[in-house]
Amino acid sequence: MIEVVEYDPAWPARGAAARTELVSRLPGLLAAIEHIGSTSVPGLAAKPVIDLMAAADLDRVTGHDETLSDLGYQRYDTGMVGRLFYFRDQHARRTCHLHVVPLDTWSTRNERLLRDYLRDHPADVARYAELKRRLAGQHADSAGYTKAKTKLIQELTDRARAGRGLPPVPVWEE
């Protein structure tokens, strides 16, 4: 079952704490790290999982898998080229995702652009929240839920990219 809950004002602090922990334990490794995803958008209903995105040299990061594991992060191969993905579970619940991408892609990452767009467009936040609530009741698996959101995510991301003078690109990496 997909759990989508109302926005929790504690999410930004949780994101900041996770970010601070990673930066302090991996000094100099991450060129940038930000809270992304639905939990980073005030007022947006979301799965209660903090998503972080970091920019770094991917080969260097994999050399620190033991430190990440000590912090509770486990690497998972998503099959996406040019991205590392880690998840963190605590008390049998997923609590955090860490996406690590190359620094040269940082400024045009769809996830960051969409987050910033939604922060400035409350009507689209409401549309997205309504869709998420409805789909959570219709899908038992994360893949189906995510796929069903694609049309709206693509529309909003295209707007976000256009607002920055960037061409549209597919939202899901292959």
Features:
174 residues, alpha+beta, five-stranded mixed β-sheet
| Biggest sheet: strand arrangement | 1-2-5-4-3
| Count of DSSP strands | 5
Largest sheet geometry: 5 strands, mixed
Overall 3D shape: globular
SSE series: HEEHHEEEHHH
> What would the average pLDDT be, to the nearest integer?
96
Please report the distance between the alpha carbons of the first and last residues.
25 Å
CA radius of gyration is 16 Å
As a percent range, the share of helical residues equals 40-55%
Please give the count of helices: 6
List segments where confidence is low: pLDDT < 50 over at least 5 consecutive residues.
none
- Which structural class do you get from the secondary structure elements? alpha+beta
- Strand proportion, as a percent range, falls in 15-25%
Task: Describe the structure concisely for a colleague.
It contains six helices and five strands, in the order H-E-E-H-H-E-E-E-H-H-H. It has helices at residues 11-25, 58-62, 65-70, 110-119, 122-138, 142-163, and strands at residues 32-36, 50-55, 73-76, 84-90, 93-101.
Describe the structure in your own words.
The chain is α+β, with helices and mostly antiparallel strands and 174 residues long. The chain is built from six helices and five strands. The protein has a five-stranded mixed sheet with strand order 1-2-5-4-3, with helices on both faces. Strand 4 (84-90) and strand 5 (93-101) form a beta hairpin. Helix 4 crosses helix 6 (142-163) and helix 5 packs antiparallel against helix 6. The two termini are 25 Å apart.
